[in-house]
Design goal:
The complex is a heterodimer of chains A (about 250) and B (about 350). Chain A has about 250 residues and is of the alpha/beta class. Chain A has a single domain, classed as Rossmann fold (3-Layer(aba) Sandwich). Chain A contains ten helices and ten strands. In chain A, strands 6-7-8-3-9-10 form a six-stranded mixed beta sheet, sandwiched between helices. In chain A, α6 packs parallel to α7. Chain A is globular, with a radius of gyration of 19 Å. Chain B is mostly helical. Chain B has a single domain, classed as ABC transporter involved in vitamin B12 uptake, BtuC. Chain B has 14 helices and no strands. The longest helix of chain B has about 35 residues. Chain B is globular, with a radius of gyration of 21 Å. The chains are: A alpha/beta (about 250), B mainly alpha (about 350). The interface between A and B is medium-sized, with 33 and 28 residues.
């Protein structure tokens, strides 16, 4: 479904990501972990067509280089961290923005009945129908991220790229988001590629993992092959597994 | 929402009627319609209306009010675009150097008597418009060469630097010339006085077409307020649409400045008030900002010509006197709210 061959990318001529090759199958969730500044988000931006890159990136066999922005956005959507908002759109209007590529009324951009029905389905799917008319600036962080997830779903993509979308969210919302996306990706022609700092959350959502360090792929493979004590320590320069075991020990003593 | 739109349109119409009727000679609304009917459709003029009253209304007041409305509408629609595209509630065409460019164009005409080979009487507005628009093209070209994505920060920084540079050139020209500096100052302060109908015939269609054109991009404007990466990942062709919208906004500002001088604050004030009343969706914000801005400008011009016992105040000063406290309220009020939270 998604193939990267020898992809390098960065900013101002400097490669932050170096020679990454990977393949994501249909209905598969690939999680990318690694320390700060390892190039995870930069790689996602290249996959979304937001950054120029060297190498090849293909979606369903078609190279995204030279593809129109609209065509990329029909295949790939991005869900990032909650960023600053300047204006108070309603929840419904915000989610409707996800239908940008699908609305055919080119003069005023008025949505069709089908678009409205699709948005209702997305609002319902993430359980925010009850706040559909509320201003997004008056929502909690958890509700807001659900709105952005609904907008991402309204885009009706095949691949969702997650760029640390659970930052600032409490554990319950993090868990619910991961569970929802896990279910979403297993239907039809879909996949999730996610950058998450929380390894536990990533393990719940991911089928496969890639560990990045200093712009390179340290390891890529099935969860049990990649989330090993040695590889995690090599990536983070810290005994991650020992840290997790000690935390688990605290819980088990109770 | 429909009721709000109808009420706003009715209020704007009322403001226009008040603007036309109020002044040294009061003209009742019924007489206003009679004179307009007489001029446009040749209907009979009631006997009680003096020919001097009809002349004041037609040759002085009506064209002045329509020009003020069109200028306010153009500036406000332009301000809406700048704030949304730049994701900066304080951004305007003035930030990007349009007014500086227009001032430079006007200075060349005023100080050096530069004139067009044809229609030399239109030299000042044409040069003001061309230089105003030229400054935004230059800002975008420089920003594009520094940063292929023409990110907002780059555009704003380049615009401000360019604006300061052009202002310095204008100041230098003013210092060297010394003569006619009063004329430049008067032009810069803005006025709708004694402009006649010709600017109305140009600015009204420009404002209407510009507002409709920008409204056509209402969905892109909505999406762009969430950030550049987000907009691109949702399918917005940011590089093209950002340039198109910035140039359209600069053209509206440039057209307004070229006929009326530099009138600030309305482009900052109108979109903020409209968002509070009509919500954030640009389908409403763009046209309603134009209507609100037009009405606001008519009120400011009315104050400019009726408040002083003799002569007129520069309308640019009136909009600033009303706009500056509002600017402070929005900017510092918002900061205080965050600090208290």
């Amino acid at each position: 479904m998604l193939t990267l061959r020898h992809v390098s990318t960065g900013y101002g001529g400097l490669d932050v990501v170096k020679d990454i090759s990977l393949h994501v199958e249909n209905n598969e969730n690939l999680m990318i972990i690694g320390p700060n500044a390892s190039g995870k988000t930069t790689l996602l931006k290249a996959v979304a067509g937001l950054l120029p890159f060297k190498g090849e990136i293909e979606i369903d066999g078609a190279a995204i280089r030279g593809m129109k922005r609209r065509d990329i956005a029909r295949k790939i959507a991005m869900l990032g961290q909650i960023s600053g908002m300047y204006f108070s759109y309603s929840v419904h209007d915000t989610v409707m923005m996800g239908r940008y590529l699908h609305i055919n009324d080119r003069l005023l951009g008025l949505p069709s009945e089908a678009d409205r029905a699709f948005v209702e389905k997305c609002l319902e799917a993430v359980d925010i129908l009850d706040v559909r008319d509320r201003e997004i600036t008056k929502l909690s962080g958890g509700q807001l991220q659900r709105v952005f997830l609904a907008r991402t779903l309204a885009q009706d993509p095949e691949i969702i790229l997650l760029d640390e979308p659970t930052n600032h969210l409490d554990i319950k919302y993090q868990f619910e988001l991961a569970e929802y996306l896990k279910e979403w990706s297993k239907q039809g022609s879909r996949a999730v590629v996610g950058v998450l700092h929380d390894i536990n959350l990533a393990a719940r959502l991911g089928d496969r993992f890639m560990i990045m360090k200093e712009g390179e792929a340290l390891a890529i493979g099935k969860t049990e092959e990649v989330l090993t004590d040695a590889l995690l320590e090599q990536a983070y320069d810290m005994d991650i597994a020992g840290y997790m075991r000690s935390t688990l020990g605290m819980w088990e003593k109770r | 929402m429909k009721i709000k739109v109808i009420l706003a349109a009715a209020a704007a119409f009322l403001v226009i009627i008040i603007g036309v009727g109020w002044g040294s000679v009061y003209i009742p609304p019924a007489d206003i319609f009679s004179v307009i009917g007489n001029k446009l459709f040749g209907t009979a003029l009631p006997e009680h209306i003096k020919s001097s009253t009809a002349a004041i209304l037609w040759s002085s007041r009506l064209c002045r009010v329509l020009l003020a409305f069109a200028a306010g509408a153009a500036l406000s629609a332009s301000g809406t675009v700048m704030q949304s595209v730049m994701r900066n509630p304080l951004a305007s065409s003035f930030t990007l150097g349009v007014s500086s460019g227009s001032s430079l164009g006007a200075s060349i005409v005023i100080f050096y008597g530069a004139s067009l080979p044809v229609a030399s009487g239109a030299s000042l507005p044409v040069m003001g418009f061309v230089f105003g628009l030229g400054s935004i093209f230059l800002a975008l070209a420089v920003a594009g060469s520094l940063d292929g994505q023409i990110s907002n920060n780059t555009v704003i920084l380049v615009g401000m630097v360019l604006s300061l540079f052009i202002n310095a050139v204008t100041t230098l020209m003013s210092a060297i010339s010394r003569e006619n500096t009063q004329e430049l100052l008067y032009w810069q302060l803005g006025s709708f006085q004694s402009r006649g109908w010709t600017p109305v015939y140009i600015l009204v269609p420009v404002a209407v077409i510009g507002v409709l054109f920008i409204t056509h991009y209402n969905r892109e404007l909505d999406i762009m307020t969430f950030g550049e990466n987000q907009a691109m990942s949702m399918g917005v062709n940011l590089k093209v649409i950002k340039r198109v919208l910035l140039v359209a906004a600069a053209a509206l500002t440039g057209a307004s400045i070229s006929f009326c001088g530099i009138v600030g604050f309305v482009d900052l004030v109108a979109p903020h008030i409209v968002r509070k009343i009509f919500g954030a969706s640009h389908r409403y914000v763009v046209p309603m900002s134009a209507i609100f801005g037009g009405a606001f400008m008519v009120i400011c011009d009315l104050a400019a010509r009726t408040l002083p016992p003799v002569g007129e105040l520069p309308v640019g000063a009136v909009t600033a006197i009303i706009g500056a406290p509002f600017f402070a309220f929005i900017y510092f009020g918002g900061k205080k709210k965050h600090a208290d939270a």
